[in-house]
């Protein structure tokens, strides 16, 4: 079966007033529109044509179509006009243990100080569909960070001293603990002030970001945490995969985001929300490394796959040319989301056809086996982590 699904934007403060409206070809509401969720997550379930939540529809029709009662992933459109909080997500084992601990302690699941709202991990992938998308992802190579801090002397001296030693991951973990402890506030303030007056060619973008973040979050230690992270600008079609424990923050742009179905977030700054420093450090992967840009693997037939190592989800991007079509196998319950042009999705078993325009989505049940795409444009297909193949047809 093919089932059209819709949802309304979530109005978080960091959302863009124009990106989602422009994508969908509608008038802007004047309010920030941050995310549209296409899935059955109870936080904001998509609706089917008769107005029922997708989860309710799956409970009724899943068994007869081969679909599970719950989707293992959540697909979103994300539109950022200002930075999201710095955050990391737990592994499945950490989430299971943390959830049980908070349940035993009687912490209400909707309490602001609650960390673990479910027992699942939350690896995530974001792919830029605006011309560019900026983000912070992972901790920068420590030698590069020392060069950045050297440009801020004497303000950066105390931070540089903490990054000395043979074990870079341990030094970064200890430095993050110090920055978020509250004891480092005089140094935080001095570094932020120095960044606003420092002229450094190598780190001009990072220093400009520091000044911008400080204007949005005065005195927030997360501004200096951000200085330890990789700043990356994605081009359209490039992605970032964020596994468990990796610090990240999305800054600006429009993207397709795919993640395991979870709402577990450990925050590390740039937010007024609760920050549990001890728990963040417990799940943190403080290993420094290069900018983690993920480029898709081309499959032919206009398709490309974003390769990750998690079973919860896989993502295909399919470009459909006006003079052809693409036959796409469906390995599980799939969600098709159009990003450009007008694309017709036709089910193999049912023969049903639904036309999608940018920002529109539908569910494909597993009994279809494959769908045929025609028209002209670009479509993303999310499904469980089994690999998929695509072949073109004239």
From TrEMBL:
Q: Where does the record place the Phosphomannose isomerase type I catalytic domain?
A: 2-140
Q: What is this protein called?
A: mannose-6-phosphate isomerase
**Residue runs in coiled coils:** none
- Which Pfam families does the annotation name? PMI_typeI_cat
Q: Where is this region: Disordered?
A: 92-116
Q: Which cofactor does it need?
A: Zn(2+)
What UniProt keywords apply to this chain's record, in alphabetical order? Isomerase, Metal-binding, Zinc
């Amino acid at each position: 079966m093919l089932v059209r699904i819709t949802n309304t934007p979530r109005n978080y403060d960091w959302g863009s007033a124009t990106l989602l409206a422009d994508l969908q070809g509608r008038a802007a509401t004047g309010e920030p529109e941050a995310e549209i969720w296409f899935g059955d997550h109870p936080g904001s379930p998509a609706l089917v044509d008769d107005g029922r939540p997708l989860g309710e529809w799956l409970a009724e029709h899943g068994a007869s179509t081969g679909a599970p009662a719950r989707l293992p992933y959540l697909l979103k459109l994300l539109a950022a006009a200002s930075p999201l909080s710095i955050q990391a997500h737990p592994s499945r084992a950490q989430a299971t243990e943390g959830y049980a601990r908070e349940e035993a302690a009687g912490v209400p699941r909707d309490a602001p100080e609650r960390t673990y709202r479910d027992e699942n991990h939350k690896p995530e992938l974001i792919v830029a569909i605006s011309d560019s998308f900026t983000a912070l992802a992972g901790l920068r190579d420590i030698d590069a960070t020392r060069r950045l801090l050297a440009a801020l002397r004497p303000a950066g001296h105390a931070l540089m001293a903490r990054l000395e030693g043979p074990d870079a991951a341990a030094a970064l973990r200890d430095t993050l603990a110090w920055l978020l402890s509250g004891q480092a506030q005089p140094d935080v303030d001095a570094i932020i002030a120095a960044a606003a007056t420092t002229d450094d060619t190598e780190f001009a973008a990072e220093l400009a970001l520091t000044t911008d973040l400080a204007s949005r979050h005065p005195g927030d230690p997360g501004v200096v945490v951000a200085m330890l992270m990789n700043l990356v600008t994605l081009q359209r079609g490039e992605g970032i995969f964020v596994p468990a424990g990796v610090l990240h923050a999305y800054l600006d742009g429009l993207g397709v985001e795919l993640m395991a179905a979870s709402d577990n977030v450990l925050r590390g700054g740039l937010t007024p929300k609760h920050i549990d420093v001890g728990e963040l450090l417990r799940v943190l992967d403080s290993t420094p490394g290069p900018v983690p840009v993920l480029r898709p693997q081309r499959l032919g037939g206009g398709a490309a796959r974003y390769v990750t190592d998690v079973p919860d989800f896989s993502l295909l991007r399919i470009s459909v040319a006006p003079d052809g079509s693409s036959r796409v196998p469906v390995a599980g319950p799939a969600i098709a989301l159009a990003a450009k042009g007008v694309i017709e999705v036709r089910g193999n078993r049912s023969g049903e056809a639904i036309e999608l325009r940018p920002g529109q989505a539908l569910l494909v049940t597993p009994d279809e086996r494959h769908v045929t795409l025609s028209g002209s444009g670009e479509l993303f297909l999310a499904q469980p982590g089994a690999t998929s193949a695509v072949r073109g047809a004239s």
